[in-house]
């Protein structure tokens, strides 16, 4: 009986396209049949009944991509066609990488109208929210109309350090080097203005996701040398947090390259101390599961949150800087990263993590945000969270995020997993905005990520193709 009940929801979701068919329930565990990985023990019988009811609805729900407007659907199909064919993607990736380096006016993506038009109509519009406020607001409106809980908005300006030369490059080089020596740093000022403009575009319940390295050399030098950031930066960030709170929004601080990470984490902890005081996280740090040190970093930050009595905001990613972060700091295999990711999620949702929540030791209030395109991790987390709620066991809040233009099947699939009150999980899309030049580095990372996740890109491509066929059939038959 128990096994049957455990089998039903996953099988139904597999049929509905929410969970890929490679998943099976084996001995009461959710297991990926292609990798053999066991993700999580299945929920208890009573919770399975509830989940079965909820997911029965998912089984009869329309395909996950049916919520996409036709224009977006067709553009997504074009981009995934390129991304899922190496022969098309490799040259596109080379061209994009070539254009990220300054090459004079003729090849400047912001000045050459032909290059600008072509990139805008393809990759830019697929992955980015817009170059100016009105376009960004339109994109946010479209995203929210699909039923997603809200958006995570990022201003694209960032610093990229070339690990081979150790040289630092600013995505937007409009400020002369001398200006960084004056007392009020123009880089910080420009970053502050850009981020505050982003805050203005947020609605209630949305997230801001700032990249701190966008604030320029004084800030990145402070991060890499372990020094405090300039007072101007601290004040700018404090002002940004206040404005976010006034909007009833929240802030997910991005994790960046390892050399800057300690500084980013410490500065964000300062903001958590001040703003996470009412039993709810307003400010979150991002932790990269691919780093071997991450489980102990999380434990150390939990300890601080516990001692100082603030809510711990934990955004968990696998990590996007494999090409630039020192390889020895990163798990040896993808499987190790997956295991680290899933075990952190389990620990936090079960409220037993590295000694916290065990032997009478309190588990600090922790809000979890899972930024992932990995459906195995996302569904396992959702299942576990629901199971614990049904069983009346302690657990934390968990929400999910995917990047715009990627893993729509995961986002809209998660939305179909409603609970017994017909409430969908909190799913957000992360939108990056900025000029074409500012967004190029981001675009290259997305194209590379699609190339590396070939099977997922192909799954997404096939699902989009099926949806296009379904719409064509609906018109003619
Ligand atoms: C909303 C959102 C916000 C994000 N914010 C950040 C951020 O602030 N900072 C950041 O760094 N990233 C961020 N990312 C990107 C994220 O870190 C991942 O690169 C990306 O999401 C792919 O990982 P995945 O969990 O979706 O799953 P998968 O595609 O299953 O995993 C791919 C990831 O596994 C890891 N990996 C791959 N091969 C190996 C290997 N051989 N050995 C060890 N590990 C390996 C890498 O981290 C790779 O990115 C964000 C992603 C999303 C969706």
Automatic annotation (TrEMBL):
Domain (Proline dehydrogenase): residue spans on this chain: 138-457
Q: Which cofactor does it need?
A: FAD
So which residues are the signal peptide here?
Answer: none
Q: What class of enzyme is it?
A: oxidoreductase
Report any one BP term from Gene Ontology: L-proline catabolic process to L-glutamate
Q: Which Gene3D superfamilies match?
A: 3.20.20.220
Enzyme Commission code(s) on record: 1.5.5.2
What InterPro entries does the record tag this protein with?
FAD-linked_oxidoreductase-like (IPR029041), Proline_DH_dom (IPR002872), Proline_oxidase (IPR015659)
Give the catalysed reaction(s), semicolon-separated.
L-proline + a quinone = (S)-1-pyrroline-5-carboxylate + a quinol + H(+)
Presence of the UniProt keyword Flavoprotein in the record: yes
Q: Which UniProt keywords are given for this protein, alphabetically ordered? A: FAD, Flavoprotein, Oxidoreductase, Proline metabolism
Entry-linked PANTHER family: PROLINE DEHYDROGENASE 1, MITOCHONDRIAL (PTHR13914:SF0), PROLINE OXIDASE (PTHR13914)
Family label:
Belongs to the proline oxidase family.
Q: Would you tell me the protein name for this molecule?
A: Proline dehydrogenase
Question: Which source organism does the UniProt entry give?
Answer: Aspergillus ibericus CBS 121593
């Amino acid at each position: 009986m128990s096994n049957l009940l455990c089998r039903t929801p996953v099988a139904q979701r597999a049929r509905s396209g929410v969970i890929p068919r490679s998943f099976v329930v084996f001995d009461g565990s959710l297991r990926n049949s292609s990798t053999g990985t066991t993700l999580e023990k299945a929920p208890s019988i009573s919770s399975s009944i509830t989940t079965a009811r909820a997911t029965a609805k998912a089984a009869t729900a329309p395909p996950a991509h049916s919520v996409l407007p036709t224009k977006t659907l067709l553009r997504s199909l074009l981009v995934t066609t390129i991304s899922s064919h190496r022969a098309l993607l490799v040259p596109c990736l080379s061209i994009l990488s070539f254009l990220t380096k300054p090459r004079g006016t003729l090849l400047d993506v912001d000045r050459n109208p032909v290059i600008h038009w072509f990139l805008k109509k393809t990759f830019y519009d697929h992955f980015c929210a817009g170059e100016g406020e009105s376009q960004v607001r339109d994109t946010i409106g479209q995203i929210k109309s699909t039923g997603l809980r809200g958006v995570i908005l990022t201003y694209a300006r960032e610093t990229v350090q070339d690990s081979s030369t150790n040289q630092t490059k600013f995505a937007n080089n409009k400020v002369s080097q001398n200006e960084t020596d004056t007392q009020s740093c123009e880089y910080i000022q420009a970053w502050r203005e850009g981020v505050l403009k982003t805050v203005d575009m947020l609605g209630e319940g949305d997230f801001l996701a700032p990249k701190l390295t966008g604030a320029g050399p004084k800030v990145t030098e402070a991060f890499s040398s372990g020094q405090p950031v300039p007072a101007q930066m601290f004040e700018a960030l404090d002002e940004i947090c206040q404005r976010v709170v006034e909007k009833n929004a929240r802030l997910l601080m991005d994790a960046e390259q390892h050399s800057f990470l300690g500084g980013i984490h410490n500065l964000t902890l300062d903001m958590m101390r001040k703003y996470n005081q009412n039993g709810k996280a307003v400010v979150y740090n991002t932790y990269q599961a691919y780093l071997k040190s991450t489980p102990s970093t999380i434990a150390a930050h939990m300890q601080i949150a516990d001692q100082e009595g603030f809510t711990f905001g934990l955004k968990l990613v696998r990590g996007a800087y494999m090409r630039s972060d020192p390889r020895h700091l990163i798990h040896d295999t993808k499987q190790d990263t997956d295991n680290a990711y899933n075990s952190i999620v389990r620990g936090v949702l079960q409220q037993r993590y590295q000694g916290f929540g065990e032997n009478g030791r309190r588990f600090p209030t922790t809000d979890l945000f899972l930024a992932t395109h990995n459906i195995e991790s996302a569904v396992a987390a959702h299942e576990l969270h629901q199971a614990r709620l049904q069983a009346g066991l302690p657990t934390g809040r968990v929400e999910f995020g995917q990047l715009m233009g990627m893993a729509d099947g995961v986002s809209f699939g998660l939305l179909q997993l409603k609970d017994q009150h017909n409430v969908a999980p909190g799913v957000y899309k992360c939108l990056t905005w900025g000029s074409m030049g500012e967004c190029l580095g981001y675009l290259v990372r997305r194209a590379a990520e699609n190339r590396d996740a070939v099977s997922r890109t192909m799954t997404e491509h096939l699902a989009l193709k099926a949806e296009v066929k379904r719409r064509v059939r609906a018109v003619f038959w």
